[in-house]
Amino acid sequence: MTPGTCIGRFAPSPSGPLHQGSLIAALASCLDARARKGQWLVRMEDVDAPRTQPGAADTILRQLEACGFEWDGPVLWQSQRLDAYRCALDQLIQHKYAYPCACSRREIADSALRAPDGSLRYPGNCRTGLPAGRAARAWRCLSDASDLHWSDAIQGEQHERLAESVGDFVLLRADGQFAYQLAVVVDDAWQGVTHVVRGADLLDSTGRQIHLQRLLGHPQPAYAHLPVLTNRAGEKLSKQTLAPALQPAHAAPALRTALSLLGQNPPVDLGRASVAEVWAWASEYWQLARVPRVRAQEDPSSPNDA
Questions:
Q1: Residue pair 150/158 in contact by the 8 Å Cβ criterion
Q2: Are the C-beta atoms of 40 and 33 separated by less than 8 Å?
Q3: Distance, CA of 125 to CA of 119 (rounded, Å)
Q4: 203 within 8 A of 155, measured Cβ to Cβ
Q5: Which residues pair with 87 in a beta bridge?
Q6: pLDDT lower than 70: segments of the chain
Q7: How many CB atoms lie within 10 A of CB 149?
Q8: Rounded to the nearest 5°, which phi and psi values hold at 223?
Q9: How many other CB atoms are there within 10 angstroms of residue 9's CB atom?
Q10: 36-54 as b/e: b if 16+ CB within 10 A
Q11: Are the C-beta atoms of 144 and 97 separated by less than 8 Å?
């Protein structure tokens, strides 16, 4: 790998097939990496075994291929990287950046503290040690009381004080599953990812990831968080909100819609072009600066009774 090479990535979770919102993230991350003359990787984030749907990963890869995506190198599977996550956790424990926690979800919920993304905020019950007679259920990362600052290429200047916003966050869950925050940081560093282009639903995770990067001595990628696609009820398109799966037969119109939602102003007749022709146009005219500077926008195809 040439020093200074841009490396982008698309990292879907195989909990279901790709939908229009997923396509937006894949397309923007790929076009951004190619515009920088860099590489684009695909990583299957299947570390959360209970959420992984059998066959979904293969479906996602087939959908990407039908939409004309080409990635560099083999797909990385998080389920095959558990030893790397354990090594990172051991490093954090060794340096006293992580500690065991005995709290149940009910105990944390009783604190009534919430993080910006709506998740429960840890009140710090086990920060000074496990209560007498209690065993560890999970491992948490010590948060920081100082301000974290970073610049997002789409959402602008960001700052967060983790101790106040999320508290000490989970690295290894009570069910033995490694947390997304740890896995993504370890994998981005191992793959040499320099530019992360993803949905703004993950903007609230970025502070935790930057904190872990610093604790582990990893470089910080450049971030750009795209507006997520919602239905008319304001819910993010997802399997849970019954977002329709991408249909390979309609790949070109779906790509054209994605370009439009990304602010690229593609010509109307591009939806009737071939997939290769859509990619040729997108590669020539792509500009990250045109992406709407909002955190969410409505899917124009969402039904009125969503």
A1: yes
A2: yes
A3: 17
A4: yes
A5: none
A6: 1-4, 112, 116-117, 237-242, 302-306
A7: 11
A8: -115, 145
A9: 28
A10: bebbbbbbbbbbbeeebee
A11: no
Question: Is the distance from CB of 140 to CB of 102 less than 8 angstroms?
Answer: no
Q: How far apart are CA 164 and CA 168, in angstroms?
A: 10
pLDDT tens per residue, range 244-294: 888 988 999 999 999 999 999 999 888 789 999 999 999 999 999 999 999
Pairing of strands 138-141, 169-172: antiparallel
| Phi, psi angles (nearest 5°) of residue 112 | 60, 20
Give residue 19's identity as a one-letter amino acid code: H
One-letter amino acid at 199 equals G
- The CA distances from residue 157 to 80, 149, 207, 219, 288, in Å, are 35, 7, 12, 19, 16
Tell me the C-alpha distance between 187 and 78, whole Å.
Answer: 8
Tell me which residue has tokens 């354990």. 86
Nearest Cα neighbor of 93 from 205, 207, 167, 171 is 171
Is-contact 193 7, C-beta < 8 A?
A: yes
Q: Convert 263-283 to b/e letters by CB count within 10 Å (16 or more is b).
A: bbebeeebbebebeebbebbe
Query: Phi/psi zone of residue 104: left (φ > 0), alpha (ψ -120 to 50 degrees), beta?
Result: beta
Q: Which residues contact residue 97 at a Cβ distance below 8 angstroms, ignoring those fewer than 6 apart?
A: 141, 142, 215
Between CA 153 and CA 206 the distance in angstroms is: 13
Euclidean distance between CA atoms 51 and 82, whole angstroms: 16
E-only strand ranges, the chain: 7-10, 39-44, 76-77, 98-101, 138-141, 148-152, 156-160, 169-172, 195-199, 222-226, 228-230, 296-298
Instruction: Tell me which residue has tokens 């054209």.
Output: 256
